[in-house]
Here is the input.
Amino acid sequence: MIKRICVVGIGYVGLPTAMAFAEAGYDVTGSDINSERVSKLNDGRSPIPEIITDERIQKLLDANKIAFTTDTPQAVRHSDAVLITVPTPLTSDKKPDLRAVRGAAEAVAEGIKRDTLVVLESTVYPGVTEEIVQTIIEERTGLRAGSDFGLAYCPERYNPGDKKHTIKNIKRIVGAINEKWLEITAGMYSKISREQVIKVSSIKTAEAAKVIENTQRDLNIGLMNELALIFDRMGIDTREVIKAAATKWNFHIYWPGPGVGGHCLPVDPYYLVYKSRELGYDPKIITAGRDVNDYMAIHVVNLCQRMLKDLVGKKVTVLGASYKGNVGDARESPAGRICEELKKRGAKVFVHDPLVEEREIEDWGVRIEGFDEAIKDSDCIIIHSDHTQFKNLDLDICAENMRTKAIVDSRGLIDQKKASKKGFLLERI
Here is the structure.
């Protein structure tokens, strides 16, 4: 019977997961190699306050239902189940970077005992759970998956900032090494989900389901972005086109934008591409969608240059570093690529984001300022993140402070008629 759970990796996915299990009554230990994060959490301070409040953490700390440590083997040793929720990014050449998964598996192997359940939640290509996690644990311990310890895959489906589709309000998928551990894993996740826990036939099936969830969304957004590139050349408002097309009952709405970011959409498709190429098939549609979405940052800069003619020496202000609205997450954000392209063309780049910590974007090589300083004497504002603050952008204040009244609206937040009446040049995706 599972009573104590160790969550390895307590970031955007791991911390909400650990909190959910602790609030469901389990004794939870969150483990992470980041000692600063661990220390902060043990003091009752949240590293992601816009998602997990200090009060929630402190309440569980006071009840002795949660603790945080950097000693993963020790935490594993005292747990009945171990959930691995570490990052799975890409290398510089767009290949899977599984160092965190390997490191987590090695740490788990140091502390695992018989009858412990090991669940991987990180997004991977089909085969990683058994080929890497299982192999590392078995080789280092002599234990065998299925008979001596449990092995399962339950893909994370966490969407930062989404108050509707929370961990407690979504369906979960689980695949396991055998029927016994499938039932145990499903039973454990049913304690934190009000929705159905769906059991699939194998671990690889569960891994594949996860990787195509985000690949599908990436492709749909890529299609809308390609349409935006086409309609821009025709002088047609893409957003108006989509609204008109959406009057048909079976049309699904996806909006174009500056590209996609975060730990999923710009990353997960490449995991599937990598495995596919390893097996001798070179995907066409998946990579085409990725190319379009990656190109959109350049398109944003092209729109800026269309208005200003020359970007050399011009002050360009990027509003929002986060990849999505009302979340302070700049991982794989298109804003970084936009800033890089602006600098290549000689612009002076300023960034303002009320949610993203400076240290998250300091390596972008831009000036990070408050709103007033960022827009002062600006030649162009690029609205990148659809934060509430930017949805209510005061055009009068912008007009009073900007040197040139030019805006690139990559999210469709600005009323075109209002902007025109106030003398703004406006380009939007």
Observations:
- Residues 203-234 form the longest helix (32 residues).
- The chain has 17 helices and 14 strands.
- The domain at 4-204 is CATH 3.40.50.720 (Rossmann fold).
